[in-house]
Design brief:
This protein is mainly alpha-helical. The protein has a single domain, classed as Transferase(Phosphotransferase) domain 1 (Transferase(Phosphotransferase), domain 1, Orthogonal Bundle), CATH 1.10.510.10. Helix content is 59%, strand content 0%. The protein is built from eight helices and no strands. α2 runs antiparallel to α4. The protein starts with 6 loop residues before the first helix and ends with a helix. The relative contact order is 0.13.
Length: 128
């Protein structure tokens, strides 16, 4: 599936650490929108859009904080040599203003509990 693939991998098939930064940007969009960019397109079309230099963005980008938009813009630079590094992203305002690790752990725990409860059969189904 090409949806998370960096443009340079589509072009030359060789791995570089910059590809992980691209994928981080795509996964970040997926976390917000529940699917990666171009997911509504068939894989071939998505591959062409990515390879053609189209920079993926949030569908309703104006609804999000500018720190997130800037973070995504740093991750999703088409030219791998101009794309931010992991060290640079660690200093980005979006991450600097993020919640503490403990808060994140608690939020993830709550979400896991909620997801687990949604997958359990209802008491009525068990009684049958």
């Amino acid at each position: 599936m090409p949806y998370w693939t960096a443009p340079e991998f589509i072009a030359n098939g060789k791995y570089s650490p910059a590809m992980d930064i691209w994928s981080l940007g795509i996964v970040s969009i997926e976390m917000v929108e529940k699917q990666p960019p171009y997911f509504d397109k068939d894989p071939h079309t998505a591959r062409e859009l990515i390879a053609g230099g189209g920079t993926p963005t949030l569908k309703d980008w104006q609804a999000f904080p500018w720190e997130l938009i800037g973070f995504l813009s740093s991750c999703l630079v088409g030219n791998e040599f101009k794309r931010a590094t992991a060290s640079e992203l660690c200093l980005h305002e979006f991450l600097a203003n993020a919640c503490s690790t403990m808060t994140l752990v608690l939020l993830l725990d709550l979400e896991l509990q909620r997801s687990f409860e949604l997958t359990l059969p209802s008491k009525q189904m068990i009684a049958r």
